[in-house]
Fold these 3 entries.
Entry 1:
Amino acid sequence: MKSKEIAKDLFYVGVNDRQKSLFENLWPLPAGVSYNSYLMIDQKTALFDTVDICYADIFLKKIAALLDGRKLDYLIVNHMEPDHSGSIRMLKEQYPDLKIVGNAQTFKMLEGFHGIAEGLHEVKEGDTLDLGRRKLQFLMAPMVHWPEVMFTIDLTDHILFSADAFGTFGALSGNVIDTEMNADAFIQDSIRYYSNIVGKYGNPVQRALKKVKDFEISTICTLHGPVWRERIPEMLSLYERLSRYEAEDGVTIAYGSMYGNTEQMAEAIALSLSEHGVRNIAMHNTLKSHASYILSDIFRYRGLIIGSPTYSNQIYPDIESLLSKIEIREVKNRYFGCFGSFSWAGAAVKRMGAFAERMNWETVGAPVEQRQGTIAERFDDCWALGAAMAGKVAG
Ligand SMILES: Cc1cc2nc3c(=O)[nH]c(=O)nc-3n(C[C@H](O)[C@H](O)[C@H](O)COP(=O)(O)O)c2cc1C
Ligand SMILES: [Fe+2]
Ligand SMILES: [Fe+2]
C-alpha cells in the first residue's frame, strides 16, 4: 500500500467517495467527493481529521501501513461533521493511547457522537503543539461551517489545515496537489461547494480569512478536493469575494412552469438581456436544474430574476423552496426582478416582491404578471424588465 507524500513526512491518507449520490443527502455529486485526511510523521505522529465511516476500513489500513508499527500520538480534529469525524471511534479503538486534540466545543460533540470523553488534549486560540521538527498552532474558525471548527497551521512548513474552507466537490483521480493536475473543474465546483455548504456564514469566513492573513502559507490542506499550492491566491480571493457576497456581472434567471406560460416569459427576458449586452446569463428551470447549481449561479452573478406561476394562491412550491434556500444563506446585494403567470387571481409575483423586501434587495424594473398565456401583450413588459436589469449588470 502506498500513500502520497505531499510535503516532507506529511502523507495524504484521505479517501474518494464515488458511490454517494447526494452530499448531506441534498447536494448532487456527479464527480464524487473526497474526504481528506493527512498523517504527519515526526518525532510524534499526528493525524489530521478522519473520514466518513463508510471508508473507515481502508482508511485505517492506510494509516497502519505508514505508521509501520509506530504508535499514533495525536488526532487533531478540525471539524466534527460526520463526513470527517465518522471514523474517530474505530481509530481510537485501534490506537487507545491516542490523544485527541480539539477545543471545548469539539469535545462536547465528540462525547455526543462517539461517547469519547477521555484522552483529550484541549487547545485554545493560538495554542501550539510541538511534534519534534514541526510545530503546530491552532486558530479557532467557528461557523466556517460548524461552531467547533478550527484551523491548524504547521509553522515549520507553512501548511494550513483549513477544515471545510477552500474545499470542493469532486473525487481525486490519483493527483492530489493542484500543481500535478488541471484543477479548473475543482475550482469551478468550489463555488457550488461554498454557496451550498458554507454560504450562510459570510462573516465567520471573513473573520477566519483575517486570521490567516497573518501567516505565510505555502500549502492549504482542505478536507475536500485538491491540496492547494499554486492556486492559493485564486482560492483566497474567491473566498474574499464569496464571503462578502460580491458578484460578477451577469444574471441568473430561475423559473418554474407547469404549462410553459411562465417559461415563455423567461425566454423573452433572456432575449432582452442578451440584446442589451449581458454576456453571462444562467437560465434554470428549477424543476430540471438541481438547486445547488442555481444557488451557485446566484452567488456568482449580481442579477437575479425569478419567475413563478401562481399556485393555489401561492408561489409555485419549487420556487418557494428555492426562495427559502436563498433566504437561509442571507444572500446580500442582488438586483432582483420577478415575473409569472396566473389564471384568475395572481399571487406569486406579489409574494416574490415581499421576498425581495425581506432580503433588502433592490428591485429592478417593473414585475411582470401575465394572465394565462397572452405573451404578445406582455412581451414588451418582459423586454423592459430585461433592459432594466441589463442597465445594472451589463458592465
Ligand atoms: C394546482 C394549480 C393551482 C393553481 N392555482 C392558481 C391560483 O391560485 N390563482 C391563479 O390565478 N391561478 C392558479 N392556477 C393557474 C396557473 O397559475 C396558470 O394556469 C398559469 O398560467 C400557469 O403558468 P405556467 O404555464 O407557467 O405553468 C393554478 C394552476 C394549478 C395547476
Ligand atoms: Fe462540514
Ligand atoms: Fe466536510
Entry 2:
Amino acid sequence: MKILHFSDTHVSHRRFRDVRDAWKISNRVTWIEEDYCLGFKKTLEIAAETDYDYVVHSGDLFDIPVGRYLAGPTEYSRTYVIKELKNFFEKTKYKVPVIIIDGNHGSYLTRNYSTIEFIQAAFPGNVYTFTNYQLKKAILDNKPLKLEFDEVVFFLFPYFKFGRAPHIEKSYEEWLRNNQQPDSSKISIAVAHGMQRGEDLHSLLFDFSYDYVALGHDHKQGSTKTNAWQSGSTEKHTFAERGHTKGVLEVEVQKGEVPKVTPRKIETKRKMHQTNITLTTQTNPSDFEEIIREKIKAYKEKFAGESATRFKIKIDGSVLLSNWWSMEDILLEIQQEVFTDAYNILEFRWDSYDLSKRAPISHEKGAKIHEYLIDDPVDDFERYIRSLGLENEDQARIFIDMGAQIIDEVFSGPIESTQEEEEE
Ligand SMILES: [Mn+2]
C-alpha cells in the first residue's frame, strides 16, 4: 500500500505588516498568499502522477483563522483548494481517498467549526476530514476516532494540547488506551498533528504498533522514529525555515514491517534572506545606517513579484536606548525606500528581541537600585510579609509561599514576546 503524506500547507497565509503593498493579480491575490497555494497545487500534482492508494494531510491545511485572529481563508484560497482537489480527483478517476485532520490553524475559536469541513462537503465520499471538535466529542463519548477501509485502518489525532492540565492529560491517555490501539489484522496508520511530547503529541503514539505514523506541525521534514515521520511544510513559513528543503513523503506500508519512506522535494520559488547585525554601545545611528544599506545593496534592482525576496534583519548585542530610537527611525525610512520599485524586495522586517537596550549613563544609578531590589525577590517578599506582623502564622506562610510561586513564574518563566513570528 502506498500513501502520499503531506502537511502544513497553510493555504491563505497572508501578511500585512512589513510587506510591500503589491498584488500578484490586482485586488485578487497577493504574492505571498499565492506562494502557499502553489505548495498545495504541487503536492497534488505529485499525488496524481503516481499510483497512490491514499493521500493524507496531517493538519494546518488553511493558515487562518488562528487563535484570536478570526478571519477565515480568502475566497481566492478556498476556490483554489477546491479546484486543485477537483483536478486531482478527475486525474485519478475519483479512486484515491484524501484524508485531512485539523491542526492548530484553520478552526474558529468562537465556533465549533473548522475550515476543512467545507472541503468534505464539496467531495463527500472522496474527502474524509477529522476536526478538533470530533476529537473532543470522541473523548467525551469514549469512542474511537478512526476511518476503516478493507486493508487499512486510519487512527486520527487532530491537534489537541492535552498537556495543558494533568486531568486532561489523564483522560486523553485513557481514551487512547481504550480506543486508539492498532488493529491486529489490518494495516494501521496514525495521523497526528503535534510536535512536543507530553504537550501536544502523546508518547503512546510511538509505543502502539502502528505501521506508520503520519505527523504534522513540525515544519521541518524528518523522522521521529523509523515508522513515524513529520512531512514538513510545503512552503517556507518563518525565517527559521529559510534553509529547509521542502517536500512531501511517499510511504510504502506493509503490515508489520518498517515502512519505506521516500522524500519528494517541492521547489519553493520565494527567496528568504536573513542577515544578522550585532550592535555595541559604541555603534552610532549613522554607522548603523551604513551597515543596513550595505546589506540591501544586492537587491537594488527593479521590483518583480515573482522573484522578489523576503528579507529580515536580526539585531543583537547591546545599544544605548537613545541611539536605538534613531535606528528604528532609520529602519522605517529604509523600509519605505525598499518598498519602491527600486528594490526587488517583497518583505522587509527586523527583530531586536536579542538586543539589550541600555539606559543612558546618567540613568544607570536608578537601574542599579532596581537590580538590588530584585536581587532575591523571594527573601524580599518574605521580609515584607513579616513586616506586616501578621498574627496568624499559617496565613503568613500561605502568603509567603504564594508570593514565592508567583515570583518564580515571573522571573524564571520564558519571556513571552508579543510580536514573535507565527506559530507552526
Ligand atoms: Mn501546526
Entry 3:
Amino acid sequence: MKVLVVGAGISGIRTAQLLEQAGIEVAVFEARDRVGGRLETINLPEGYVEAGGEWIDSDQQRAISLLTEFGLEPEGHEQFPGRVLYQGEEAVEDHVWPDAEADARAIHHEATELCHQISPEPWLQDHLADLDKRTLASWFDHLCISPRGRWWVEAVTRSDEGEDSSAVGLLGWLVGYKHYLERTSGEMSAFRFPGGAQSLVARMSETLQGDIFFDHILHSVEQNEESVQIWCKGEMAFGDRVVITLPPPVLRKIEFPFDFPDEKLKAWETIGSARAIKVTLRFKRRFWLDEKWQGRMLSNLPFQQIWDSGREGAACLSAYICGQAAVNIARQRDPVAGVLRAVSEVAPLAQEEFVEGWLHDWIHDPYSLGAFTSLTPGSVRDALPHLATPVGRIHFAGEYASSWQGFVEGALESAERVVEEVLESGR
Ligand SMILES: Cc1cc2nc3c(=O)[nH]c(=O)nc-3n(C[C@H](O)[C@H](O)[C@H](O)COP(=O)(O)OP(=O)(O)OC[C@H]3O[C@@H](n4cnc5c(N)ncnc54)[C@H](O)[C@@H]3O)c2cc1C
C-alpha cells in the first residue's frame, strides 16, 4: 500500500512516521519549503523564539511522550503569575480584583453546571441546540456584573480561544471547558519544546524513509475504486490512499471534482479559525528582570498579552494578540512600532533596549488562514460529527479533526486515529 500525506506539519509528519512503522510506503507533499507548519521557530544568533505553537500543557501526554522519544525533557517556565493591567490599575494574575474574581467564579460555576449536561456526542442532544447557536459573549454579558470582571473573563478566554468571545459558540466553548474540568492537573501552559517546536518536527521528519516534496501546493484530489490522485502545481501523484492534514480554511479551496458529501463541506464552512497573531520584539537584554518582572502581562492595551518568549540567550517579548484587535494590528503600516509603543507604556525601557521586531501573521498566512480551530456558533452540531470522517480513499487529520482542537496534542491524536483508519481499510 502507498499512502500520500499532504502537509508536513506535526500531524502530517507523525502520520507518515506511524505509517512507515507499520510497513506502509509514504510520500509527503508540502506547500512551504520547510516542515512544521504552524510550529515555526525563529532562530537568532543568541537563541530562538516561537512564531506559532509554543506551549504544552502538563496533561498532554502524546506531546510529552514524543519529546521523551527524542530524549528531550519538557522545559518548565516561571512566569506565572504575571501582571494584570486594566485601565491603569494593576493586579497579579492569580489574585485579581474582588469584583473580577466574583465574575470569573460565577462563569466557572455556571459552566460547570452546564458541562454536567453535555454527553460525549453533544450534537445528538437536541435540547442543547440553542446553546450551540448562542455566542459566548452574550452569555458572559448576561452573567458578569462589573465591567472590570467582564473584561477579565474576556481576556482569559480570549487567550485560550485565540478569539473574541463574540466569534465563539457557547456550546463549543463548553465542550472545551468540560475537557478542562476533566483534567486531573489544573496546570495550563506548563512547558515549552526544548530546542524549539519546529526542530522537533524536523527531527521527526529525519526518521522518514519516504520523500518529502516541498513547494508542492495541493489544489485538486480525485479518486476511483482503485486509487487516489492528487495534483500539486500541475504534477500528479498516485496512491492507494491520501491523508490530508490541511486546516479547514485551506481545505475549502481544494477541488474535489466528484460527488463530495455536503455535510463535510458545510462542516468546513462552519468551523472557525482563530484570528491570532504574534508580534515579537527583540531587545538587547532582559531589562524587565531588573524591574523584578518576569515579562508576562495581560492588559487592556492593544497588545492584550505579552510574555518573555526568548529561549537560551534571546531577550524577546512576544505579544499574542487575538480577535478583531489582531486584524486591526496586522493591517497597520508598522505593527511592530505600534506594539512597541504600547509595551513602552508599561515598560519604559523598552524603546531604549529595542533591537528589532517581527509580525507573525497567521490570519493571512496562505497555508493556515488562521491560527487554530475556534468553534463558531453552530459548530458543535454542523461541524464536529463530520470533521474526521473519511470520504472513500481520502482521510483527514490535523488538529481540527481531534478531541484536542487547537493543540499540538490534537494534531498528534489525529495522526494516531487516521493511521488506525488507514490500516483497517486494508488497501
Ligand atoms: C500563534 C499560535 C499559537 C499557538 N499556540 C499553541 C500552543 O501554545 N500550544 C499548542 O498545543 N498549540 C498551539 N498552537 C496550535 C498548533 O500550532 C497547531 O495545533 C499545530 O501545529 C497544528 O498542526 P497540524 O499538523 O494539524 O497543522 P499545520 O501545522 O498547519 O500543518 C499543515 C501543513 O499543511 C501545509 N499546507 C497548507 N496548505 C497546503 C496545500 N495546499 N498543499 C500542501 N500543503 C499545504 C502547511 O504549510 C502545513 O505545513 C498555536 C498556533 C498558533 C498559530
